[in-house]
Amino acid sequence: MTPKQFDYYSPASLNEAIQLLKTKDEAKVLAGGQSLLALMKLRLAAPKNIIDITKLQGLSYIKEDKDYLAIGALTIHDMLEQSAVIKSKFTILNDAASKIGDQQIRNRGTVAGSVCHADPAADLPTALTAADASYVVQGPSGQRIIAPKDMFVDIFTTALGHDEVVTEIRIPNFPLRTGSGYIKHSRREGDFAIVGVGTVVTLGDGNVCKDVRIALGSVNTTPMRAKSAESYLRGKKLDDKTIAEAAEKGPEGADPPSDMHGSREYRLEMIKVFIRRTMKLALSRIN
Amino acid sequence: MQSLKSNLVQVTCKINGKEYTGMAEPRTLLVHFIRDDLNLTGTHIGCDTGHCGACTIMFNGKALKSCMLLAIQAQGADILTVEGLAQGDKLHPLQEAFWENHGLQCGYCTPGMLIASLFLLQRNPDPTEDEIRRGIEGNLCRCTGYVNIVKSIKAAAKKMQEGGKTTAQPS
Ligand SMILES: Cc1cc2nc3c(=O)[nH]c(=O)nc-3n(C[C@H](O)[C@H](O)[C@H](O)COP(=O)(O)OP(=O)(O)OC[C@H]3O[C@@H](n4cnc5c(N)ncnc54)[C@H](O)[C@@H]3O)c2cc1C
Ligand code: FES
Ligand code: FES
């Protein structure tokens, strides 16, 4: 399988990359290529111009800021998995990154690539939605920040303009007494998620739920928040019964497909199971 | 209309310590370039979709699937393929261990298996069975059932620790 012909550019700066995206016909960013090249080989995508950003310097990092964690666009999944800060403070991202494909894919695929590809079954978009991540984007007219709820627009579609590049992903620091977790439900290691659930929960006095975000993947055209379950939990004492009651509300608004990996009914049921499990996982991580 | 090979570009990279130069279209996959243009046919193609791992090579120190890279992206890269593991007649400890433990039957998956194992052992010189299985998740074998592959990697880890050698040094 060989992609259709294209012209290849390896710009030396971000501005040059943006200019190329702006001026070249049907131009596409190439990051890790672990999704884009697969599509091009199958001829599901046939961009006329490829703008390879992998040689750009300074876009691969994980930095702690006063208010947020900053992850550079070209940070590979493996780096997320290995990062001590992520393991200890943003465990949900370690859970998600470590479940992507296999070692070779994690050695090349990038965080921003996974976000921009916007596969509803992908792991990081769901985990980042639960973590309330924002996306720093650079385009011809400068920088803008896309809010968590605005990034994923439709299946394989983000809010990004064709001449815009994601440069950084920002995750607001979790408050004290917060735990997080992501569980991917799949039949075999390396498969895409049948259902993926990410949870970030903050406790107040006693065992009362001060705040909670639950994100669901693989059950709609984009990652989605389980808003009814979340609001049911807020302000309540978190025992097994309350969590189970909230999980029953999890499927509200979900519209999962039926395919060979699982029927619609099965997925709707699994949402409940994995909300319960990620809630317990996240709670178990609060010290 | 453009002729098919109108836009060939020159690609120079280091493979197994030796410099290679060839011509490739931008759309040429790295695995095809390595096999068909540079005649290093040790690296195999199983699926061409990124799933089987037969095409695994070490690319600037990281195990990657060479069917998921463009040849043009190898410009200036430092690559290790299965041909670079042995030093002359002396097999790499991983190759010895696969031989001694029947870590292969048809051998089709072996070049990729060896490179994936090398990456694993460089990062984790004494892996548990679970860690080994996770390390070769991206490499499919249709013959062995993996048991002897896991055994081979375990044995190689021991050999490499005893020999104090965890990196392949291409001559
Ligand atoms: C065998 C295999 C198994 C996999 N398993 C999983 C899995 O289990 N779970 C999972 O979530 N994923 C999986 N993936 C996908 C993997 O995570 C990809 O790495 C990821 O989806 C895309 O990242 P990339 O850097 O390779 O992006 P690319 O393939 O280079 O790009 C993907 C898309 O994003 C755009 N893009 C990339 N970077 C930017 C940027 N900075 N700004 C703007 N646009 C950009 C590109 O133009 C393209 O449209 C798998 C892939 C393979 C081949
Ligand atoms: S040929 Fe590259 S992964 Fe199968
Ligand atoms: S030995 Fe035949 S595929 Fe692995």
Describe this structure in words.
- The complex is a heterodimer of chains A (287) and B (171).
- With 287 residues, chain A is of the alpha+beta class.
- Chain A folds into 3 domains: 7-52, Uridine Diphospho-n-acetylenolpyruvylglucosamine Reductase, domain 2 (2-Layer Sandwich); 62-172, 2-Layer Sandwich (Uridine Diphospho-n-acetylenolpyruvylglucosamine Reductase, domain 3), CATH 3.30.465.10; 178-284, Enolase-like, domain 1, CATH 3.30.390.50.
- In chain A, 33% of the residues lie in helices and 25% in strands.
- Chain A has helices spanning 14-23, 36-41, 77-82, 84-89, 91-98, 103-106, 111-117, 123-130, 148-151, 227-233, 240-248, 264-284; strands at 7-9, 27-30, 49-52, 62-64, 68-72, 134-139, 142-146, 152-154, 157-158, 165-172, 178-185, 195-203, 209-217, 224-225.
- Chain A has a 5-stranded antiparallel sheet with strand order 4-5-10-6-7. Chain A has a 4-stranded antiparallel sheet with strand order 11-12-13-14, sandwiched between helices.
- In chain A, strand 8 (152-154) and strand 9 form a beta hairpin.
- In chain A, helix 5 runs antiparallel to helix 8, helix 10 (227-233) packs antiparallel against helix 11 (240-248) and helix 11 packs antiparallel against helix 12.
- Chain A starts with 6 loop residues before the first strand and ends with a helix.
- By secondary structure, chain B is of the alpha+beta class.
- Chain B folds into 2 domains: 9-84, Ubiquitin-like (UB roll); 93-162, DNA polymerase, domain 1, CATH 1.10.150.
- Helices cover 31% and strands 15% of the residues of chain B.
- Chain B has 5 helices and 5 strands, in the order E-E-H-E-E-E-H-H-H-H.
- Chain B has helices spanning 30-37, 93-100, 110-123, 129-135, 147-162; strands at residues 9-15, 18-24, 56-59, 62-65, 78-80.
- A 5-stranded mixed sheet of chain B has the order 2-1-5-3-4, with helices on both faces.
- Chain B is globular.
- The mean pLDDT of chain B is 93.
- The chains are: A alpha+beta (287), B alpha+beta (171).
- The A-B interface holds A 1-8, 10, 33-34, 37-38, 40-42, 50, 52, 54, 78, 101-105, 107-108, 189-190 and B 2, 4, 7, 9, 25-29, 32, 48-50, 53, 56, 62-65, 68-70, 72-73, 116, 119-120, 134-135, 137-139.
- The complex binds flavin-adenine dinucleotide and FE2/S2 (inorganic) cluster (2 copies).
- One FE2/S2 (inorganic) cluster (FES) binds at residues 45-48, 50-55, 65, 67 of chain B.
